Amino acid sequence: MTDSFNYVLTQANLATMQQSDVPYGLVSGGAIVIRDGVISWVGSADMLPKEHADLAVIPMNGRLVTPGLIDCHTHIVFGGDRAREFEMRLEGASYEEVARAGGGIVSTVKATREADVDALIAGALPRLDALLAEGVTAVEIKSGYGLDRETELNMLRAARASATLRDVQIKTSFLGAHAVPAEYAGRADTYIDEVCIPALRAAHAEGLVDVVDGFCEGIAFDATQIRRVFEAAQELGLPVKLHAEQLSNIGGTKLAAEFGALSADHVEYANDDDAAALAKSGTVAVILPGAFYTLRETQMPPIDSFRKHGVPMALATDCNPGSSPMTSLLLAMNMGCTLFRMTPEEALIGVTRNAAQALGLANCGQIAPGMRADLAVWDVKHPAELSYRIGFNPLHKRILGGAL
Ligand code: DI6
Ligand code: FE
After folding, report:
1. Which of the residue ranges 100-114, 130-144, 229-243, 262-276 would you say has the lowest mean pLDDT?
2. Which atom from ligand 1 is nearest to the alpha carbon of 324?
Protein backbone atom coordinates (compact mmCIF):
# COMPACT_ATOMS: atom_id res chain seq x y z
CA MET A 1 0.00 0.00 0.00
CA THR A 2 1.24 3.49 -0.79
CA ASP A 3 1.78 5.55 2.33
CA SER A 4 0.23 8.84 1.27
CA PHE A 5 2.76 10.87 3.27
CA ASN A 6 5.99 9.08 2.21
CA TYR A 7 6.75 8.90 -1.48
CA VAL A 8 8.78 10.29 -4.37
CA LEU A 9 7.28 12.43 -7.11
CA THR A 10 9.27 11.89 -10.30
CA GLN A 11 9.20 12.92 -13.98
CA ALA A 12 8.28 16.43 -12.91
CA ASN A 13 9.30 19.87 -14.07
CA LEU A 14 9.83 21.73 -10.85
CA ALA A 15 9.40 25.46 -10.36
CA THR A 16 11.01 25.30 -6.93
CA MET A 17 10.82 29.10 -6.47
CA GLN A 18 14.06 28.89 -4.52
CA GLN A 19 16.13 32.04 -4.77
CA SER A 20 18.73 31.32 -7.47
CA ASP A 21 20.04 32.54 -10.80
CA VAL A 22 17.83 30.03 -12.59
CA PRO A 23 14.43 31.58 -13.41
CA TYR A 24 11.69 30.09 -11.23
CA GLY A 25 14.36 27.85 -9.65
CA LEU A 26 13.45 25.45 -12.49
CA VAL A 27 14.57 21.82 -12.42
CA SER A 28 13.52 19.75 -15.40
CA GLY A 29 13.24 15.99 -14.99
CA GLY A 30 13.00 16.60 -11.27
CA ALA A 31 12.05 14.55 -8.23
CA ILE A 32 10.70 15.48 -4.81
CA VAL A 33 11.04 13.19 -1.80
CA ILE A 34 8.23 13.65 0.72
CA ARG A 35 8.44 12.12 4.20
CA ASP A 36 5.80 12.70 6.87
CA GLY A 37 4.30 15.51 4.86
CA VAL A 38 7.57 17.42 4.64
CA ILE A 39 9.88 17.80 1.64
CA SER A 40 13.10 15.98 2.47
CA TRP A 41 14.93 16.09 -0.88
CA VAL A 42 14.56 17.97 -4.19
CA GLY A 43 16.61 17.78 -7.35
CA SER A 44 17.16 16.20 -10.72
CA ALA A 45 15.75 12.64 -10.69
CA ASP A 46 19.13 11.29 -11.90
CA MET A 47 20.67 12.40 -8.63
CA LEU A 48 18.08 10.83 -6.33
CA PRO A 49 20.00 9.39 -3.34
CA LYS A 50 19.75 5.62 -2.91
CA GLU A 51 18.40 5.90 0.63
CA HIS A 52 15.03 6.87 -0.85
CA ALA A 53 14.81 3.82 -3.12
CA ASP A 54 12.32 2.07 -0.83
CA LEU A 55 9.66 4.76 -1.28
CA ALA A 56 6.66 4.53 -3.57
CA VAL A 57 7.24 6.39 -6.83
CA ILE A 58 4.53 8.59 -8.31
CA PRO A 59 5.31 9.72 -11.87
CA MET A 60 4.14 13.20 -12.87
CA ASN A 61 4.51 12.51 -16.61
CA GLY A 62 6.32 15.78 -17.29
CA ARG A 63 3.82 18.02 -15.52
CA LEU A 64 4.86 21.24 -13.81
CA VAL A 65 5.00 21.17 -10.01
CA THR A 66 5.02 24.44 -8.07
CA PRO A 67 4.65 25.24 -4.40
CA GLY A 68 0.96 25.40 -3.48
CA LEU A 69 -0.28 28.91 -4.20
CA ILE A 70 -0.84 31.31 -1.32
CA ASP A 71 -3.51 34.03 -1.33
CA CYS A 72 -2.11 36.40 1.29
CA HIS A 73 -4.91 39.04 1.27
CA THR A 74 -8.61 38.15 1.27
CA HIS A 75 -11.87 39.21 2.86
CA ILE A 76 -13.77 36.03 1.91
CA VAL A 77 -15.89 35.97 5.09
CA PHE A 78 -18.76 38.47 4.80
CA GLY A 79 -22.55 38.66 4.55
CA GLY A 80 -24.63 39.81 1.59
CA ASP A 81 -23.35 41.06 -1.74
CA ARG A 82 -22.85 44.37 -3.48
CA ALA A 83 -24.09 43.79 -6.99
CA ARG A 84 -26.35 46.88 -6.76
CA GLU A 85 -23.35 49.03 -5.90
CA PHE A 86 -21.62 47.65 -8.97
CA GLU A 87 -24.55 48.98 -10.97
CA MET A 88 -24.30 52.38 -9.22
CA ARG A 89 -20.65 52.65 -10.09
CA LEU A 90 -21.48 51.81 -13.70
CA GLU A 91 -24.01 54.65 -13.57
CA GLY A 92 -21.16 56.99 -12.66
CA ALA A 93 -20.75 57.00 -8.86
CA SER A 94 -17.17 56.67 -7.59
CA TYR A 95 -16.10 54.16 -4.91
CA GLU A 96 -15.66 57.00 -2.44
CA GLU A 97 -19.08 58.50 -3.31
CA VAL A 98 -20.73 55.12 -2.80
CA ALA A 99 -18.94 54.78 0.57
CA ARG A 100 -19.91 58.27 1.71
CA ALA A 101 -23.56 57.61 0.71
CA GLY A 102 -23.72 54.79 3.26
CA GLY A 103 -22.99 52.05 0.74
CA GLY A 104 -19.67 50.41 0.40
CA ILE A 105 -18.08 48.68 3.36
CA VAL A 106 -20.82 49.88 5.71
CA SER A 107 -23.57 48.07 3.75
CA THR A 108 -21.65 44.80 3.98
CA VAL A 109 -21.33 45.44 7.72
CA LYS A 110 -25.11 45.45 8.03
CA ALA A 111 -25.46 42.11 6.22
CA THR A 112 -22.55 40.60 8.14
CA ARG A 113 -24.03 41.56 11.51
CA GLU A 114 -27.28 39.86 10.50
CA ALA A 115 -25.48 36.56 9.75
CA ASP A 116 -24.50 34.01 12.42
CA VAL A 117 -21.25 32.05 12.32
CA ASP A 118 -22.81 29.19 10.35
CA ALA A 119 -24.18 31.59 7.74
CA LEU A 120 -20.79 33.29 7.47
CA ILE A 121 -19.11 29.92 6.94
CA ALA A 122 -21.71 28.90 4.36
CA GLY A 123 -21.10 32.13 2.46
CA ALA A 124 -17.32 31.85 2.59
CA LEU A 125 -16.90 28.20 1.57
CA PRO A 126 -17.82 28.59 -2.13
CA ARG A 127 -15.30 31.44 -2.39
CA LEU A 128 -12.67 29.36 -0.60
CA ASP A 129 -13.43 26.39 -2.84
CA ALA A 130 -12.91 28.54 -5.94
CA LEU A 131 -9.45 29.48 -4.67
CA LEU A 132 -8.52 25.91 -3.77
CA ALA A 133 -9.63 24.69 -7.21
CA GLU A 134 -6.74 26.74 -8.62
CA GLY A 135 -4.04 25.16 -6.51
CA VAL A 136 -4.19 27.44 -3.47
CA THR A 137 -3.02 25.74 -0.26
CA ALA A 138 -2.91 28.71 2.16
CA VAL A 139 -5.31 31.63 2.49
CA GLU A 140 -5.35 34.69 4.67
CA ILE A 141 -8.82 35.78 5.86
CA LYS A 142 -9.62 39.10 7.51
CA SER A 143 -12.35 40.30 9.82
CA GLY A 144 -13.45 43.92 9.31
CA TYR A 145 -17.12 43.73 8.31
CA GLY A 146 -18.37 43.37 11.88
CA LEU A 147 -17.07 46.58 13.43
CA ASP A 148 -18.62 45.49 16.69
CA ARG A 149 -17.01 43.12 19.10
CA GLU A 150 -19.23 40.09 18.62
CA THR A 151 -19.38 40.22 14.83
CA GLU A 152 -15.63 40.78 14.48
CA LEU A 153 -15.12 37.65 16.61
CA ASN A 154 -17.74 35.73 14.63
CA MET A 155 -15.94 36.49 11.37
CA LEU A 156 -12.70 35.14 12.79
CA ARG A 157 -14.49 32.10 14.23
CA ALA A 158 -15.88 31.44 10.74
CA ALA A 159 -12.38 31.78 9.28
CA ARG A 160 -10.91 29.33 11.81
CA ALA A 161 -13.79 26.90 11.20
CA SER A 162 -13.13 26.97 7.45
CA ALA A 163 -9.71 25.48 8.13
CA THR A 164 -11.37 22.44 9.70
CA LEU A 165 -13.87 22.03 6.86
CA ARG A 166 -11.39 22.19 4.00
CA ASP A 167 -7.81 21.02 3.37
CA VAL A 168 -6.08 24.38 3.55
CA GLN A 169 -3.97 26.45 5.90
CA ILE A 170 -5.78 29.58 7.09
CA LYS A 171 -4.13 32.65 8.60
CA THR A 172 -6.44 35.20 10.21
CA SER A 173 -6.07 38.98 10.36
CA PHE A 174 -8.00 41.17 12.76
CA LEU A 175 -9.21 44.19 10.74
CA GLY A 176 -11.35 46.01 13.29
CA ALA A 177 -9.92 49.27 11.90
CA HIS A 178 -11.47 48.74 8.46
CA ALA A 179 -14.20 51.42 8.53
CA VAL A 180 -16.01 53.61 11.02
CA PRO A 181 -19.46 52.06 11.63
CA ALA A 182 -22.52 54.32 11.32
CA GLU A 183 -23.07 54.44 15.10
CA TYR A 184 -19.60 56.02 15.49
CA ALA A 185 -19.82 58.38 12.49
CA GLY A 186 -17.50 61.34 13.07
CA ARG A 187 -16.03 59.63 16.17
CA ALA A 188 -13.30 57.43 14.74
CA ASP A 189 -11.06 57.86 17.79
CA THR A 190 -13.82 56.78 20.14
CA TYR A 191 -14.49 53.74 17.92
CA ILE A 192 -10.81 52.74 18.16
CA ASP A 193 -10.86 53.03 21.96
CA GLU A 194 -14.28 51.59 22.72
CA VAL A 195 -14.62 48.88 20.10
CA CYS A 196 -11.57 48.14 17.99
CA ILE A 197 -8.92 47.67 20.66
CA PRO A 198 -11.16 45.84 23.17
CA ALA A 199 -12.38 43.53 20.36
CA LEU A 200 -8.78 42.85 19.38
CA ARG A 201 -7.93 41.86 22.95
CA ALA A 202 -11.00 39.60 23.16
CA ALA A 203 -10.25 37.97 19.81
CA HIS A 204 -6.63 37.40 20.82
CA ALA A 205 -7.72 35.87 24.14
CA GLU A 206 -9.82 33.38 22.14
CA GLY A 207 -6.85 32.48 19.92
CA LEU A 208 -8.50 33.96 16.85
CA VAL A 209 -5.83 36.40 15.68
CA ASP A 210 -2.61 35.71 13.77
CA VAL A 211 -1.95 39.24 12.51
CA VAL A 212 -3.42 42.73 13.04
CA ASP A 213 -4.41 44.75 9.96
CA GLY A 214 -5.91 48.20 9.36
CA PHE A 215 -7.18 50.45 6.56
CA CYS A 216 -5.20 53.69 6.53
CA GLU A 217 -7.15 55.93 4.17
CA GLY A 218 -9.16 59.15 3.99
CA ILE A 219 -12.43 57.15 4.08
CA ALA A 220 -11.21 55.02 7.01
CA PHE A 221 -8.48 55.77 9.61
CA ASP A 222 -5.49 58.08 9.64
CA ALA A 223 -1.97 57.07 10.58
CA THR A 224 -2.31 58.35 14.16
CA GLN A 225 -5.36 56.15 14.72
CA ILE A 226 -3.74 53.10 13.12
CA ARG A 227 -0.66 53.68 15.27
CA ARG A 228 -2.79 53.13 18.38
CA VAL A 229 -4.10 49.85 16.97
CA PHE A 230 -0.54 48.77 16.13
CA GLU A 231 0.63 49.64 19.64
CA ALA A 232 -2.12 47.41 21.04
CA ALA A 233 -0.97 44.64 18.66
CA GLN A 234 2.61 45.06 19.83
CA GLU A 235 1.51 44.75 23.46
CA LEU A 236 -0.12 41.43 22.58
CA GLY A 237 2.96 40.28 20.67
CA LEU A 238 1.08 40.15 17.35
CA PRO A 239 2.62 41.09 13.99
CA VAL A 240 0.97 43.80 11.89
CA LYS A 241 0.17 44.57 8.25
CA LEU A 242 -1.68 47.46 6.64
CA HIS A 243 -3.93 48.52 3.75
CA ALA A 244 -1.83 51.52 2.80
CA GLU A 245 -1.82 54.14 0.06
CA GLN A 246 -4.70 52.57 -1.92
CA LEU A 247 -6.56 55.76 -2.86
CA SER A 248 -4.16 58.47 -1.64
CA ASN A 249 -0.83 58.83 0.18
CA ILE A 250 -1.40 59.55 3.88
CA GLY A 251 1.64 57.89 5.42
CA GLY A 252 0.42 54.34 5.95
CA THR A 253 3.35 52.69 4.23
CA LYS A 254 5.91 54.49 6.38
CA LEU A 255 3.92 53.61 9.50
CA ALA A 256 3.83 49.95 8.44
CA ALA A 257 7.59 50.02 7.88
CA GLU A 258 8.17 51.66 11.25
CA PHE A 259 6.34 48.78 12.95
CA GLY A 260 8.22 46.14 10.93
CA ALA A 261 4.95 45.07 9.31
CA LEU A 262 4.79 41.76 7.48
CA SER A 263 3.24 43.59 4.52
CA ALA A 264 1.91 46.87 3.19
CA ASP A 265 -0.96 46.17 0.82
CA HIS A 266 -2.35 47.97 -2.28
CA VAL A 267 0.35 50.71 -2.22
CA GLU A 268 -0.71 52.26 -5.54
CA TYR A 269 0.05 55.76 -4.17
CA ALA A 270 3.29 54.76 -2.43
CA ASN A 271 6.32 56.72 -3.60
CA ASP A 272 10.01 56.00 -3.92
CA ASP A 273 10.67 56.99 -0.28
CA ASP A 274 7.96 54.60 0.83
CA ALA A 275 9.60 51.83 -1.21
CA ALA A 276 12.93 52.56 0.46
CA ALA A 277 11.27 52.35 3.88
CA LEU A 278 9.68 48.98 3.04
CA ALA A 279 13.02 47.63 1.84
CA LYS A 280 14.67 48.68 5.09
CA SER A 281 12.04 47.02 7.27
CA GLY A 282 11.82 43.84 5.16
CA THR A 283 8.11 44.45 4.57
CA VAL A 284 6.44 42.81 1.57
CA ALA A 285 4.49 45.03 -0.84
CA VAL A 286 1.25 43.18 -1.61
CA ILE A 287 -0.03 44.14 -5.06
CA LEU A 288 -3.80 43.83 -5.53
CA PRO A 289 -4.68 44.29 -9.20
CA GLY A 290 -8.27 43.06 -8.75
CA ALA A 291 -9.18 46.21 -6.78
CA PHE A 292 -7.28 48.44 -9.23
CA TYR A 293 -9.19 46.84 -12.10
CA THR A 294 -12.62 46.93 -10.42
CA LEU A 295 -12.28 50.56 -9.32
CA ARG A 296 -10.76 51.50 -12.69
CA GLU A 297 -7.88 53.15 -10.86
CA THR A 298 -5.23 54.78 -12.95
CA GLN A 299 -2.46 55.24 -10.36
CA MET A 300 -0.13 52.27 -10.80
CA PRO A 301 1.84 50.92 -7.84
CA PRO A 302 5.53 51.91 -8.11
CA ILE A 303 6.73 48.51 -9.31
CA ASP A 304 10.04 49.90 -10.59
CA SER A 305 10.77 51.50 -7.22
CA PHE A 306 10.01 48.21 -5.48
CA ARG A 307 12.38 46.43 -7.86
CA LYS A 308 15.08 49.08 -7.47
CA HIS A 309 14.99 48.94 -3.67
CA GLY A 310 14.59 45.15 -3.54
CA VAL A 311 11.16 45.21 -1.90
CA PRO A 312 9.66 41.70 -2.12
CA MET A 313 6.35 41.84 -4.02
CA ALA A 314 3.40 39.52 -3.46
CA LEU A 315 0.14 39.30 -5.42
CA ALA A 316 -3.27 38.49 -3.94
CA THR A 317 -6.95 38.52 -4.87
CA ASP A 318 -8.17 40.97 -2.15
CA CYS A 319 -11.40 38.98 -2.60
CA ASN A 320 -14.11 41.21 -1.09
CA PRO A 321 -17.67 42.15 -2.03
CA GLY A 322 -16.89 45.74 -3.00
CA SER A 323 -13.61 46.54 -4.65
CA SER A 324 -12.46 43.09 -5.75
CA PRO A 325 -15.14 40.41 -6.09
CA MET A 326 -12.52 38.04 -7.47
CA THR A 327 -11.84 34.46 -6.42
CA SER A 328 -9.08 33.65 -8.91
CA LEU A 329 -5.45 33.94 -7.91
CA LEU A 330 -4.43 32.92 -11.42
CA LEU A 331 -6.35 35.95 -12.72
CA ALA A 332 -4.58 38.15 -10.17
CA MET A 333 -1.29 36.88 -11.63
CA ASN A 334 -2.41 37.68 -15.16
CA MET A 335 -3.56 41.16 -14.07
CA GLY A 336 -0.30 41.80 -12.23
CA CYS A 337 1.52 41.16 -15.50
CA THR A 338 -0.86 42.86 -17.92
CA LEU A 339 -1.84 45.89 -15.83
CA PHE A 340 1.39 46.46 -13.87
CA ARG A 341 3.99 44.92 -16.18
CA MET A 342 5.18 42.46 -13.58
CA THR A 343 6.98 39.50 -15.12
CA PRO A 344 5.38 36.05 -14.98
CA GLU A 345 8.26 35.03 -12.72
CA GLU A 346 7.53 37.95 -10.35
CA ALA A 347 3.87 36.94 -10.42
CA LEU A 348 4.62 33.35 -9.44
CA ILE A 349 7.10 34.43 -6.76
CA GLY A 350 4.34 36.78 -5.60
CA VAL A 351 1.87 33.96 -4.94
CA THR A 352 4.43 31.56 -3.47
CA ARG A 353 7.67 32.61 -1.77
CA ASN A 354 6.81 36.26 -1.16
CA ALA A 355 3.19 35.51 -0.22
CA ALA A 356 4.53 33.10 2.40
CA GLN A 357 6.76 35.87 3.74
CA ALA A 358 3.79 38.24 3.83
CA LEU A 359 1.99 35.75 6.10
CA GLY A 360 5.02 34.89 8.23
CA LEU A 361 4.88 31.28 6.95
CA ALA A 362 8.52 30.26 7.15
CA ASN A 363 7.94 26.68 5.96
CA CYS A 364 5.83 27.33 2.84
CA GLY A 365 6.14 28.92 -0.57
CA GLN A 366 9.15 27.02 -1.93
CA ILE A 367 9.96 23.47 -2.95
CA ALA A 368 12.97 22.92 -0.72
CA PRO A 369 14.06 20.50 2.01
CA GLY A 370 12.32 21.23 5.29
CA MET A 371 9.32 22.92 3.68
CA ARG A 372 5.81 21.53 4.08
CA ALA A 373 4.79 19.42 1.10
CA ASP A 374 2.11 21.88 -0.03
CA LEU A 375 2.26 21.57 -3.81
CA ALA A 376 0.31 22.25 -6.98
CA VAL A 377 0.65 20.02 -10.04
CA TRP A 378 -0.26 21.65 -13.35
CA ASP A 379 -0.97 20.49 -16.86
CA VAL A 380 1.38 23.07 -18.35
CA LYS A 381 4.89 22.91 -19.73
CA HIS A 382 6.29 26.25 -18.57
CA PRO A 383 5.44 28.30 -15.47
CA ALA A 384 4.80 31.46 -17.54
CA GLU A 385 1.60 29.76 -18.76
CA LEU A 386 0.08 30.24 -15.31
CA SER A 387 0.13 34.02 -15.78
CA TYR A 388 -0.42 34.06 -19.51
CA ARG A 389 -3.78 32.36 -19.85
CA ILE A 390 -7.01 34.09 -18.87
CA GLY A 391 -9.93 32.18 -17.36
CA PHE A 392 -8.31 28.77 -17.81
CA ASN A 393 -7.49 26.47 -14.92
CA PRO A 394 -4.77 23.93 -15.71
CA LEU A 395 -4.59 22.46 -12.19
CA HIS A 396 -4.07 18.69 -12.19
CA LYS A 397 -3.73 18.09 -8.45
CA ARG A 398 -3.25 19.90 -5.17
CA ILE A 399 -1.16 18.32 -2.40
CA LEU A 400 -1.49 19.60 1.16
CA GLY A 401 1.00 18.47 3.79
CA GLY A 402 1.97 15.58 1.52
CA ALA A 403 -1.59 14.21 1.44
CA LEU A 404 -2.44 12.97 -2.03
N1 DI6 B 1 -9.57 48.12 0.75
C2 DI6 B 1 -10.25 47.43 -0.14
O3 DI6 B 1 -10.03 47.40 -1.30
C4 DI6 B 1 -11.28 46.68 0.55
N5 DI6 B 1 -11.04 47.01 1.89
C6 DI6 B 1 -10.05 47.84 1.96
O7 DI6 B 1 -9.64 48.25 3.02
C8 DI6 B 1 -12.63 47.11 0.13
C9 DI6 B 1 -13.67 46.54 0.98
C10 DI6 B 1 -15.06 46.81 0.49
O11 DI6 B 1 -15.31 47.67 -0.37
O12 DI6 B 1 -15.95 46.10 1.00
FE1 FE C 1 -8.30 44.42 1.33
Report:
1. 100-114
2. 3
The answer to whether the CB of 320 is under 6 A from ligand 1 is yes
Residue nearest (by alpha carbon) to ligand 1 atom 7: 215
183-224 pLDDT, tens digit each: 999 999 999 999 999 999 999 999 999 999 999 999 899 999
Query: What spacing in Å lies between the alpha carbon of 143 and ligand 2's midpoint?
Result: 10
pLDDT tens-digit series, residues 261-273: 999 999 999 999 9
Q: Quote the CA–CA distance of 350 and 71 in Å, as a whole number.
A: 9
